[in-house]
C-alpha cells in the first residue's frame, strides 16, 4: 500500500471570514491527486506543541459545507508564536521561550511533507522565519485589514467592508431622523482600508484613517457646514488606529502573555469628546463595530477568492514552491516570496486613487 503524503494546515492570528473556504479548497483539490492526507493543527501551531498533540484529520466529512461559515474549524489564536511561546514555569509564572526547533521536529515526526499557513502579516512573518530554519511552508494571506502589500486583496476584507457599510447605512437614517452626528468606529490598526472603502460606499462626510492625522478643528468646521439653525446631520467613519495631529491612537496595554500588540479601540468616544470641546453643537452618538466585522458568513467574493487561494496553495505544494505566499494580482492568482510579502506594509496611499477619489466626492480626512 502506498504511503500517504501529508500536508499540515494551520490558521493563525485573528479569525476572518473565508478561512473555512480555504481549508475546504485545499482538501477538495487534494482529492484530485493520489495518496494525499490533509491534517489540521488546532489553535494555530499550539496543536502541534501540545501533549498530546491536537491534530484534526481533514476529510470530506470534516469540510462539508464549511465554506459558508465564519471563523475557522481549526480555531486560532494571537498567542501561538513558536519563537516566543508562552508557558508557565514551576512557580506558576508566565515565561516566554523559543520552541521553533521543537515545532519543526514534531512536524517532521508526523511525516508531514509541507505546511500551509493561513494568516496575516504576523503569521506570515512566522512562516518566513520557519522557512529559513528549513521547514517546507507556504503562506495564504488573510486579514480583514487588507494590509499585506504583495497581494491586491486579502480574503475577508470585502466581507468586513460589507458589514461596516451595512452598519453605516443604518446609522445614516437615525442621524437624519434626530439631526445628529453619528460616529462609526471600524477596525484598522495601521491601515485605513476598511474605513476608506466604507466611507466611499456609504457616503460619509468625514473619514479618519491612521495614514492621515486629523485636525479636530477642521473636522468640526466640516460638520458645522452640515447644519443650518440646528438642523442637519452628518456621519463619520473612523478607523480604530486614527490619531490627531501630534497625537497617538487610543490604546491600552495588553496584559496577555504571548500577545505583543497593544489593544486599540475607543477612538470614537475620544473623537466625540474632542469635537464637543472644539465647539461642535450637534448631538453626537458613537457606534463601535469591533469584532462584528470579523464574524459571520463571508460574502461571495471572499468565498471565491479563498477557494482560489486554497487550490493554488495545494498546487504550490505539488510544485514544491516553498517559502512563497499565494497572491491575488491584476485579477489573477499568483505567488510571491514570503520575504517580499512581509517586507512592505500595505498602507493607504495618501495621494493614491482611492483617497483622491474620496476627496473628489467631498469626503474630508480632517487635514
Low-pLDDT runs: none
* Overall average residue pLDDT: 93
Quote the beta fraction: 15-25%
If classified by CATH, what would the architecture of the largest domain be? 3-Layer(aba) Sandwich
Q: How many alpha or pi helices?
A: 12
Beta-strand segment tally: 17
H and E order: EHEHEHEEHEHEHEHEHEEEEEHEHEEHH
The name of the CATH topology of the largest domain is: Rossmann fold
Broad shape = elongated
Question: Could you characterize the architecture of this molecule?
Answer:
The chain is α/β, with parallel strands linked by helices and 367 residues long. It has two domains: 5-155 and 298-343, Rossmann fold (3-Layer(aba) Sandwich); 160-293, 3-Layer(aba) Sandwich (Rossmann fold). Helix content is 35%, strand content 22%. The radius of gyration is 22 Å and the shape is elongated. 47% of the residues are buried.
What's the arrangement of secondary structure elements?
Layout: E1 5-11, H1 19-30, E2 36-41, H2 46-49, E3 55-57, H3 60-63, E4 85-88, E5 94-97, H4 100-109, E6 112-119, H5 121-132, E7 137-141, H6 157-178, E8 180-186, H7 193-202, E9 206-208, H8 216-224, E10 227-228, E11 231-232, E12 234-239, E13 251-252, E14 263-264, H9 267-277, E15 283-288, H10 300-318, E16 324-329, E17 332-337, H11 338-343, H12 353-360
Parallel strand pairs: 1-2, 1-6, 6-7, 7-16, 8-12, 8-15, 9-12
Antiparallel strand pairs: 2-3, 4-5, 10-11, 13-14, 16-17
Q: Which terms would index this structure?
A:
367 residues, alpha/beta, Rossmann fold, seven-stranded mixed beta sheet, four-stranded parallel beta sheet, 12 helices, 17 strands
Amino acid at each position: 500500500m502506498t504511503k500517504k503524503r501529508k500536508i499540515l494546515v494551520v490558521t493563525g492570528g485573528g479569525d476572518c471570514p473565508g478561512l473555512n473556504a480555504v481549508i475546504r479548497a485545499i482538501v477538495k483539490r487534494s482529492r484530485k491527486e493520489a495518496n494525499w492526507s490533509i491534517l489540521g493543527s488546532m489553535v494555530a501551531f499550539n496543536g502541534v506543541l501540545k501533549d498530546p498533540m491536537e491534530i484534526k484529520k481533514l476529510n470530506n466529512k470534516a469540510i462539508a459545507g464549511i465554506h459558508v461559515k465564519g471563523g475557522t474549524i481549526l480555531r486560532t489564536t494571537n498567542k501561538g508564536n513558536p519563537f516566543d511561546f508562552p508557558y508557565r514555569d514551576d512557580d506558576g509564572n508566565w515565561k516566554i521561550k523559543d520552541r521553533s526547533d521543537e515545532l519543526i521536529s514534531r512536524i517532521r515526526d508526523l511525516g508531514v511533507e509541507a505546511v500551509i499557513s493561513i494568516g496575516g502579516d504576523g503569521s506570515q512573518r512566522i512562516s518566513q522565519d520557519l522557512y529559513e530554519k528549513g521547514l517546507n511552508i507556504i503562506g495564504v494571506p488573510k486579514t480583514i485589514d487588507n494590509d499585506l502589500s504583495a497581494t491586491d486583496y486579502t480574503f475577508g476584507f470585502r466581507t468586513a467592508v460589507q458589514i461596516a457599510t451595512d452598519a453605516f447605512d443604518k446609522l445614516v437614517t437615525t442621524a437624519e431622523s434626530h439631526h445628529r452626528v453619528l460616529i462609526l468606529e471600524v477596525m484598522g490598526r495601521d491601515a485605513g482600508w476598511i474605513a476608506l472603502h466604507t466611507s466611499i460606499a456609504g457616503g460619509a462626510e468625514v473619514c479618519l484613517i491612521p495614514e492621515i492625522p486629523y485636525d479636530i478643528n477642521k473636522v468640526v468646521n466640516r460638520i458645522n457646514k452640515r447644519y443650518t439653525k440646528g438642523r442637519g446631520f452628518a456621519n463619520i467613519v473612523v478607523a480604530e488606529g486614527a490619531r490627531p495631529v501630534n497625537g497617538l491612537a487610543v490604546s491600552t496595554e495588553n496584559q496577555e502573555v504571548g500577545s505583543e500588540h497593544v489593544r486599540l479601540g475607543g477612538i470614537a468616544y475620544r473623537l466625540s469628546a474632542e469635537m464637543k470641546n472644539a465647539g461642535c453643537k450637534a448631538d453626537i452618538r458613537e457606534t463601535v463595530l469591533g469584532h462584528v466585522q470579523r464574524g459571520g458568513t463571508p460574502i461571495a467574493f471572499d468565498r471565491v477568492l479563498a477557494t482560489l487561494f486554497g487550490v493554488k496553495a495545494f498546487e504550490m505544494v505539488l510544485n514544491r514552491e516553498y517559502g512563497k505566499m499565494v497572491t491575488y494580482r491584476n485579477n489573477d492568482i499568483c505567488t510571491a516570496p514570503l520575504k517580499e510579502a512581509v517586507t512592505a506594509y500595505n498602507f493607504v496611499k495618501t495621494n493614491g486613487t482611492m483617497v483622491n477619489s474620496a476627496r473628489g466626492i467631498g469626503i474630508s480626512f480632517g487635514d
